[in-house]
Amino acid sequence: MMPPIAPPETAGQKLTPAQLLDASGAKAVLALLDDELIGLAPVKARIRDIAALLLIDRLRAEQGLQTRPPSLHMCFTGNPGTGKTTVALRMATILKQLGYSRTGHLVAVTRDDLVGQFIGHTAPKTKDIVKKAMGGVLFIDEAYYLYKPENERDYGQESIEILLQTMENHRDDLIVILAGYKDRMETFFQSNPGMASRIAHHIDFPDYSEEELMRIAELMLEQLDYRFDDGARRAFAQYLALRRQQPHFANARSVRNAIDRIRLRHATRLFSIDAVPTAEDLSTLGAQDILVSRVFANAAAPPATPAPQPAGA
Ligand SMILES: Nc1ncnc2c1ncn2[C@@H]1O[C@H](COP(=O)(O)OP(=O)(O)OP(=O)(O)O)[C@@H](O)[C@H]1O
Ligand SMILES: [Mg+2]
Fold first, then answer.
1. Neighbours of 75 (CB within 10 A)
2. Is the pLDDT assigned to residue 261 strictly greater than 50?
3. Taking the mean position of all CA atoms in its chain, how far away is CA 164?
């Protein structure tokens, strides 16, 4: 752990914290986080703060000032599709660049990966996962499922005990990030104060606004070499307004899924045209590719623009 942050060519030179952040490569990842993730201003700010703290901590160590290895276990709360897994992956890279993670890899698990069905199965399962994650980040999605108070002898408790020990004894070689819904996570922490006290950073991921969801869609399309024409943009805005009110809405993940279905319909539509498609045809999504979604059919009020055909997802 703790290799020098600066690459060899800057060794010996006195650098400002900002220059060091740049030299470590973490600045580039932070910039990518800004560019590739829409919104999430409070999340991005917290990650910058953590990066700053770690860097300053290293400078303090180099000056012989008191340092305590910072606790980096975190909790990411938020609704589905708000970017928790994506940010955790970026966080792992940043931690590696700042010298706080050996490998920068992330192992993502849920209860089933950690807890066995039978007596004696849980400890080896949890220890195996911990071993896989050593040197990097262990990301536990829906962590509250580890604790089932209704079952008197639930094996989840055994897994929690092992995780707690690891979080304490290997805190300089394994970072644990718990993720899940905010309210359930709070209940989990109330029943598991040992876990709560080991989590240094709580980061809340807000739901995206309709405008942010639209920007997320346009970013995803741009990355895929597609675009909405003006009609499609209006139709997709209507789609978002309706979809957000419906069950199982999952923020940016729903946007990604919607785009996949729109691309399917667009592809089928091009087959119905008896002409060689141009690059423009191949990349332009139209309102008709969106308005056939069953989101409009399910909605109480019909869309402002008439939906031509029934069916389709
Ligand atoms: N702010 C954003 N900008 C652009 N794309 C985003 C943003 N947030 C999430 N995405 C994209 O949305 C998808 C879902 O994100 P992710 O898997 O990180 O969400 P999550 O919070 O982990 O969801 P879950 O709780 O369901 O696991 C991914 O494809 C991701 O790239
Ligand atoms: Mg996730």
1. 25
2. yes
3. 23
The 10s digit of each residue's pLDDT in 210-252 is 999 999 999 999 999 999 999 999 999 999 999 999 999 999 9
Q: How confident is the model at residue 8 (pLDDT cuts 50, 70, 90)?
A: very low
Cα of 142 from ligand 2 centre, angstroms: 9
Measured in degrees and rounded to the nearest 5, phi and psi for residue 118 equal -125, 160
Q: How far is the CA of 69 from the centre of ligand 2 (A)?
A: 28
- Model's pTM, two decimal places? 0.87
Name the nearest CA neighbour of 47 among 205, 203, 208, 185: 203
Identify the H or E element spanning 22.
helix 17-24
Q: How far is the CA of 91 from the centre of ligand 2 (A)?
A: 14
- Ligand 1 atom nearest to 252, measured from its CA: 12
Q: Which ligand is nearest to the CA of 203?
A: 1
Q: For ligand 1, atom 23, name the residue with the nearest CA.
A: 81
- Report helix angle 230-243 to 210-223, nearest 10: 130
Q: Are 211 and 233 in contact (CB under 8 A)?
A: no
How many CB atoms sit inside 10 A of residue 10's CB? 16
Atom in ligand 1 nearest the alpha carbon of residue 179? 25
Q: How far apart are CA 109 and CA 162, in angstroms?
A: 15
- Parallel/antiparallel/unpaired status of strands 175-180 and 137-141: parallel
